[in-house]
């Protein structure tokens, strides 16, 4: 069976968590930002400040208060994490009722990019983590285990309009470095940094930053406002045309992310099936499996949305139609 419905209690818990996460995103307190408390002594008196880095990369300090017991208790409780802390119990409740979790260290990566403003700047979570998010979004449990060691992100660049604030400046590279996990950017044959980060002694754990293919072909594109290099891929503009918000969770908490329109995500998997060659054939099989699961859910719950996305795909010309047919035929045989 491709999927089973989650109990109503789990679906309700996810809806409550989504509402709470949306609220936390819009009402972020000081220590929800990645930063630290610092003391300054002025004329013999000590004052506390909260120091953090803005999405633009500028170092900022906010005044917290004098060195009093109340201020020290505030710091000890890490009350600045207020909105995020409140999400922990809701996330654990949703997980206990049947919602799917991601690995804690994957959560920390996504959380850190969110803290630095990656998603507010138009960044989108794609790949298997988006697929896992769709399960919770639709209130279903996927019939097959879906695990991955890589985390895929995308940004439309100037290819399509996401109706997101894509003019916000973010230092994504600084966000990755601040994780202190050992991620290093991978250089291509030209010696220039590409769109991938790896941990040298753990090459399976990787971060990929992708974008639609543009006039420069497959040459990596250094995005000036995003502060990261993006690797162009074919057909990606189709999946990034329209996004939704979803919640990723683990026992540590929850984070709000942008994910592609699920219908476009599923159809894009069929489009790129034929592009996977050689060593990437395993990933191609995963593409087909995820497409099959999502298409089954969409046919039952969002058929009109699926039909609209398919009409758009078929209107894009013979090349698109041919690749879609190849993927669809492979799906039938799988």
Structure description:
It is a single chain. With 334 residues, this protein is of the alpha+beta class. The protein has one domain (100-333). Helix content is 41%, strand content 26%. It is built from eleven helices and 14 strands. The chain has helices at 8-26, 69-76, 82-96, 104-115, 127-138, 172-178, 236-239, 262-271, 281-301, 303-314, 318-333; strands at residues 3-5, 35-42, 45-53, 59-66, 124-126, 140-142, 150-154, 184-187, 193-199, 202-212, 221-223, 228-233, 243-250, 253-260. The strands form four sheets. Strands 5, 7, 8, 9, 10, 11 and 12 form a seven-stranded mixed β-sheet that branches. The radius of gyration is 21 Å and the shape is globular. The model is unreliable at 161-166 (pLDDT under 50).
Shape, per Cα inertia axes? globular
- The radius of gyration is 21 Å
Class from helix and strand fractions: alpha+beta
Largest sheet: 7 strands, mixed
Task: Point out poorly predicted stretches.
Answer: 161-166
The percent range for strand residues is 25-35%
Quaternary structure annotation:
single chain
**SSE order, one letter for each helix or strand:** EHEEEHHHEHEEHEEEEEHEEHHHH
Number of strands: 14
Q: What count of helical segments does DSSP give?
A: 11
Average of per-residue pLDDT values: 84
How many domain modules? 1
* First-residue to last-residue Cα separation: 14 Å
């Amino acid at each position: 069976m491709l999927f089973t419905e989650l109990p109503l209690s789990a679906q309700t818990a996810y809806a409550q968590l989504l509402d709470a996460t949306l609220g936390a995103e819009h009402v972020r307190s000081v220590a929800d930002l990645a930063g630290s408390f610092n003391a300054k002594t002025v004329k013999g008196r000590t004052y506390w400040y909260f120091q953090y880095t803005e999405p633009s990369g500028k170092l900022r300090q906010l005044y917290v208060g004098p060195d009093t017991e109340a201020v020290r208790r505030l710091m000890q409780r890490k009350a600045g994490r207020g909105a995020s802390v409140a999400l922990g119990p809701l996330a654990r409740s949703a997980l206990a009722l049947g919602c799917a979790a991601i690995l804690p260290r994957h959560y920390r990566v996504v959380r850190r990019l969110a803290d630095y403003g990656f998603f507010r700047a138009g960044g989108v979570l794609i790949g298997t983590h988006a697929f896992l998010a769709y399960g919770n979004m639709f209130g279903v449990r996927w019939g097959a285990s879906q695990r991955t060691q890589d985390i895929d992100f995308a940004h439309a660049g100037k290819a399509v309009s996401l109706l997101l604030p894509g003019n916000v400046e973010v230092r994504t590279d600084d966000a990755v470095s601040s994780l202190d996990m050992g991620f290093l950017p991978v250089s291509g044959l030209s010696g220039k940094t590409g769109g991938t980060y790896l941990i040298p002694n753990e090459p399976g754990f990787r971060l990929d930053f992708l974008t639609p293919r543009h006039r420069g072909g497959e040459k990596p594109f250094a995005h000036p406002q995003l502060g990261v290099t993006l690797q162009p891929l074919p057909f990606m503009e189709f999946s990034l045309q329209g996004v939704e918000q979803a919640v990723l969770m683990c026992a540590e908490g929850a984070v709000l992310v942008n994910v592609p329109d699920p219908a476009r995500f599923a159809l894009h998997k069929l489009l790129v099936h034929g592009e996977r060659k050689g060593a990437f054939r395993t990933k191609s099989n995963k593409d087909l499996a995820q497409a099959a699961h999502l298409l089954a859910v969409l046919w039952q719950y969002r058929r009109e949305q699926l039909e609209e996305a398919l009409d758009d795909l078929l209107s894009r010309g013979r090349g698109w139609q041919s690749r879609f047919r190849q993927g669809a035929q492979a799906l039938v045989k799988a």
